[in-house]
TrEMBL record:
Residues 12-191 form the Metallo-beta-lactamase domain. Its cofactor is Zn(2+). This is Glyoxylase-like metal-dependent hydrolase (Beta-lactamase superfamily II). InterPro entries: MBL_Glyoxalase_II, Metallo-B-lactamas, RibonucZ/Hydroxyglut_hydro. Residues 186-210 are annotated as: Disordered. One of its GO terms (molecular function) is metal ion binding. Keywords: Hydrolase, Metal-binding, Zinc. PANTHER family: HYDROXYACYLGLUTATHIONE HYDROLASE GLOC (PTHR46233). It holds the Pfam family Lactamase_B. The keyword Translocase does not apply. The keyword Membrane does not apply.
Length: 210
């Protein structure tokens, strides 16, 4: 499986397109610039099967309806943040974007760690709250990839000063769900460069002494 990392929007949120050999793909966190994302999908001749959301802050959801309507595909989100999609206060678009980002309800609500089969992708879902109450990570074991949203970054962790954030909860999520993955697992974060589990275990200053 291949992935494309596409920074979009004013704060360069990473949208990911993960594609199998048969060109079926899933779109993770389409945050902005929907036309740009569609052009890439068309250029690569990909066939989107679903939109997967790691959480619902405005910079991760801005292009959801554009992609959903173009390809008539379902949206997956954790149940704790379903209403955040249409609430500009919860999704922080009023505070940081100066605009009201309002997205229609998701098609599928996630709840609890579980195995997902979406478009032929075998995905392990982990609840990784802390940055937000419905933050999740999508682990593609066959390819050694995990999409973590804003839980974990190269040399850093997600902020926890936003609505319903919890520093203690985030650290617990990282240590009990993410750092237990194989050390060679490639981490695809919501901002910045990719990293690995081993790299963060060895050098991330926010994880020392937990």
């Amino acid at each position: 499986m291949d992935f494309i990392q596409i920074p979009v929007g004013a704060i360069q949120e990473n949208t990911y397109i993960l594609a199998k050999e048969d060109l079926t793909c899933v779109v993770v966190d389409p945050g902005n610039e929907g036309d740009k994302l569609i052009n890439i999908i068309k250029e690569k001749q990909l066939k989107p099967a679903a939109i997967l959301l790691t959480h619902t802050h405005y910079d991760h959801i801005g292009a959801v309806d554009v992609i959903r309507d173009e390809y008539n595909i379902p949206v997956y989100v954790h149940k704790n943040e379903q209403e955040w999609l249409s609430n500009p206060e919860y999704n922080a678009s009023i505070k940081f974007n100066g605009q009201h980002v309002v997205i229609r309800d998701a098609d599928h609500l996630l709840d609890g760690d579980q195995e997902l089969n979406i478009g032929g992708f075998q995905i392990q879902l982990f609840e990784t709250p802390g940055h937000s109450p419905g933050s999740v990570s999508y682990y593609f074991a066959d390819s050694g990839l995990v999409c973590v949203g804003d839980a974990l970054f190269h040399g850093s962790i997600g902020r926890t000063d936003l609505y319903m954030g919890s520093h203690e909860q985030l650290l617990n999520s990282i240590h009990t769900k993410l750092l237990t993955l194989p050390e060679e697992t490639e981490v695809l974060p919501g901002h910045g460069p990719t990293t690995t589990i081993s790299g963060e275990m060895e050098s991330n200053p926010f994880l020392n002494g937990f």
